[in-house]
Structures are given as structure tokens and as C-alpha cells.
């Protein structure tokens, strides 16, 4: 049972925000809303975020499609403009248009890690702790693919959305544990 973003036994709710850039088929926006529903989070585009307002949140997710092997430039620019975070929690998510069959098992983890590296490194340089990362296939009709009906048709699908929700529950637990540690660390000071 969840109440206002708070799990039973949590000292306080995890105030969350999901920032997403989604364009072609709104693949990443679907994932963003699945994650936001679990986190009871607002969803904003990078253009709607005022960098200083990020300080109000315990947990911030950053997501987009993958463009030339990296998250969208608007997310990276936003991350670079953020005030220093001093260990605040963040997570990264994305959808990608590459054929899923090319990335079985551990190869997919490496592919995700590589695609998120520019955004992750920027967030970490601003003092964020990236607690986890998520990606799934998205429908892709870029370039010549539109002539063949696209790639990853129907993605993200119900399984992808369920996996995104599971990811959000995991990130929420991780962020909640960090908040408990931070709360204990301020007692008596």
C-alpha cells in the first residue's frame, strides 16, 4: 500500500520529478508516465524545468529517446545547468530504436550504460548519485526504416511498461533508503 509517495515505515515521502524529452512516437513519454505513476511524480519536459526548482525534489528522473548513442541534448544541457546537488538521487531512463535482438543479456546492460554515459557523467559532475538506469526498445521509423514499416513496432509494449513500473518501485526503495540514512545523519547535529 502506498500513500502520497510513502511506503509504510518510511520516515517521509520521496518527493519525485520525472523530466522527459519524447518526440517521434512518444515512446519515452509512455515510459515516463508509467514511472511517474508509481512515484506519484510530476512529469515535465526539460524546457518546463527551472534548474533551481530541482532542489525541491529528493529523486529526479531524466529520460529521452537515444539519439546518436546518447540521451537528447536538451536533457544533457539541463543537467549541466543544475545547481550542485550534494548527493541527491537521480535515475536515467530511455527508449532506443536499435534492434533488440542485437543486445542479448549483458550486452543490453553495456549498451544502456554506453548510451547514458554523457548524461550520467554530467549529473555526477553536478553532485547527483545516479541510483539506477532503465531502457527498453521503442518504435523507430527514422530514415529508411519508414519504408519497411519501422523497427520495434508496438514497443514499448505492456511488458515494457510493467518493467518500467518495477524499475520505479526499485528506485523508490533505493531513494527511500538514502533518505533514511540522510535523516539519521542529521539527528543531534
Give me a quick take on this structure:
The chain is α/β, with parallel strands linked by helices.
Walk me through this protein's architecture:
This protein is α/β, with parallel strands linked by helices. It has a single domain, classed as Flavodoxin domain (Rossmann fold, 3-Layer(aba) Sandwich). Helix content is 38%, strand content 17%. The protein has helices at residues 27-39, 73-81, 106-125, 158-186, and strands at 16-21, 42-44, 59-65, 89-96, 129-137. Helix 1 crosses helix 4 (158-186) and helix 2 (73-81) packs parallel to helix 3. It starts with 15 loop residues before the first strand and ends with a helix. Residues 1-6 and 180-189 have low confidence and may be disordered.
Name of the CATH architecture: 3-Layer(aba) Sandwich
Q: In this structure, how is the largest beta sheet organized?
A: 5 strands, parallel
Q: Please trace the helix and strand order, writing H or E for each element.
A: EHEEHEHEH
Number of discrete domains: 1
The class by helix and strand makeup works out as alpha/beta
Average pLDDT confidence is 83
CATH class: Alpha Beta
Topology, number of strands: 5
List the helices and strands and how they pair.
Elements: E1 16-21, H1 27-39, E2 42-44, E3 59-65, H2 73-81, E4 89-96, H3 106-125, E5 129-137, H4 158-186
Parallel strand pairs: 1-2, 1-3, 3-4, 4-5
Keywords:
single chain, 189 residues, alpha/beta, Rossmann fold, five-stranded parallel beta sheet, 4 helices, 5 strands, 38% helix, 17% strand, globular, disordered N terminus
Amino acid at each position: 500500500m502506498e500513500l502520497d509517495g510513502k511506503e509504510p515505515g518510511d520516515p517521509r515521502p520521496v518527493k519525485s520529478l520525472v523530466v522527459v524529452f519524447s518526440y517521434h512516437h512518444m515512446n519515452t513519454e509512455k515510459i515516463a508516465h508509467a514511472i511517474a505513476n508509481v512515484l506519484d511524480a510530476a512529469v515535465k519536459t526539460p524546457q518546463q524545468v527551472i534548474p533551481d526548482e530541482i532542489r525541491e525534489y529528493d529523486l529526479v528522473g531524466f529520460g529521452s529517446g537515444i539519439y546518436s548513442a546518447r540521451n537528447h541534448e536538451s536533457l544533457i544541457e539541463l543537467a549541466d545547468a543544475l545547481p550542485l546537488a550534494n548527493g541527491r538521487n537521480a535515475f536515467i531512463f530511455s527508449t532506443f530504436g536499435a534492434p533488440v535482438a542485437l543486445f542479448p543479456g549483458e550486452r543490453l546492460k553495456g549498451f544502456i550504460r554506453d548510451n547514458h554515459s554523457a548524461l550520467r557523467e554530467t549529473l555526477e559532475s553536478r553532485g547527483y548519485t545516479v541510483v539506477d538506469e532503465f531502457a527498453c526498445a521503442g518504435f523507430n521509423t527514422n530514415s529508411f526504416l519508414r519504408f519497411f514499416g519501422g523497427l520495434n513496432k508496438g514497443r514499448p509494449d505492456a511488458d515494457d511498461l510493467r518493467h518500467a513500473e518495477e524499475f520505479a518501485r526499485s528506485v523508490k526503495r533505493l531513494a527511500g533508503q538514502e533518505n533514511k540514512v540522510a535523516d539519521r545523519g542529521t539527528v543531534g547535529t
